[in-house]
């Protein structure tokens, strides 16, 4: 049986590829679970400092949840559907969002439903100019279930998010950039290259500092400014106790590139 997620390590960067091209990389339960499994493995692997996640083939990043599988859970009743579909998807996107190593989505095609929610959850995203995004769950009579009703309004603003959530209309990569959903739009043949280049720009810096920044932003985003500033100080204090701070300061004083090992 073909693995539904492929893992490849390229230097200090892990490439995760959602591998169901015949189904437009739809997210069945096994795929969601395998993404989380690889994240667990990568977190323990100190040689990996960043992740790029993309979709197999040239048509889709991910067209969203596997509706045929989801329909069977719906038939089993709401409690089963919440457990198997909603909580499983939210576990995956929550893990992506709070992961201590930078994760970059390389959106190479359709990013509908759960595929869009992965893009919302990860730290950074590069999209093909031919990519299309959508929040189409309303077309089958449900709200988004992998965090889309919560993360998209925080990224795009309440009214713009509600327009997309309530109409189910697709939108372009350029629109996704304007909404703050992606950082960069490039030609289709440059998506992976641009994602790896962005990861490389991050890898110049302390991995511990990157983890502290991700934690401060993720935890502080939905708090008051006072609580957020407290979180910022907490993350600084954790960083100040590491050798990386001394290496960074000494490198700056000596006018050399830092070596974070």
Describe this structure in words.
With 261 residues, this protein is of the alpha/beta class. The chain is built from 11 helices and 10 strands. It has helices at 29-44, 67-75, 78-98, 114-121, 148-156, 158-167, 173-178, 191-203, 207-220, 225-240, 243-254; strands at residues 5-10, 13-18, 50-55, 60-62, 103-107, 110-112, 124-128, 132-134, 170-172, 184-186. It has a 6-stranded mixed sheet, with helices on both faces. α1 runs parallel beside α3, α2 packs across α3 and α3 (78-98) packs parallel to α4 (114-121). The longest helix is centred in the middle third of the chain and has 21 residues, at 78-98. The protein is globular. It starts with a strand and ends in a 7-residue tail after the last helix. The model has no long low-confidence stretch (mean pLDDT 96).
Distance linking N and C termini: 39 Å
Stretches where pLDDT is under 50 for at least 5 consecutive residues are none
Q: What is the overall number of helices? A: 11
Please state the overall shape, judged from the principal axes of the Cα atoms.
globular
Overall pLDDT confidence = 96
Spatial strand arrangement across the major sheet? 1-2-3-5-7-10
Evaluate the radius of gyration. Answer: 19 Å
Largest sheet: 6 strands, mixed
**In percent, how helical is the residue content?**
40-55%
Structural class based on helices, strands and sheet pairing: alpha/beta
Order of helices and strands: EEHEEHHEEHEEHHEHEHHHH
Strand content: 15-25%
What is the number of strand segments?
10
């Amino acid at each position: 049986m073909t693995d539904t997620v492929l893992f490849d390590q390229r230097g200090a960067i892990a490439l995760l590829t959602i591998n169901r091209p015949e189904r437009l990389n739809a997210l069945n339960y096994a795929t969601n679970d395998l993404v989380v499994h690889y994240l667990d493995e990568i977190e323990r692997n100190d040689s990996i400092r960043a992740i790029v996640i993309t979709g197999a083939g040239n048509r889709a990043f991910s067209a969203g949840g596997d509706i045929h599988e989801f329909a069977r859970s719906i038939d089993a009743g709401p409690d089963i559907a919440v457990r198997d579909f909603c909580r499983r998807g939210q576990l995956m996107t929550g893990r992506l969002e709070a992961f201590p190593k930078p994760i970059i989505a390389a959106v190479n095609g359709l990013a509908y439903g759960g595929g869009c929610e992965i893009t919302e959850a990860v730290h950074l995203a590069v999209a093909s100019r031919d990519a299309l995004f959508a929040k189409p769950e309303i077309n089958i009579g449900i709200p988004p279930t992998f965090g889309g009703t919560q993360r998209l309004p925080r990224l795009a603003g309440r009214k713009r998010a509600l327009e997309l959530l309530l109409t189910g209309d697709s939108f372009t990569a350029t629109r996704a950039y304007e909404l703050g959903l992606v950082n960069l739009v490039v030609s289709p043949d440059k998506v992976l290259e641009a994602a790896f280049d962005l990861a490389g720009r991050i890898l110049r810096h302390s991995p511990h500092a990157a983890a502290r920044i991700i934690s401060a932003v993720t935890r502080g985003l939905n708090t008051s400014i006072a609580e957020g500033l407290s979180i910022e100080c907490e993350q600084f204090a954790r960083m100040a106790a590491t050798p990386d701070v001394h290496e960074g300061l000494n490198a700056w004083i000596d006018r050399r590139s830092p070596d974070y090992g």
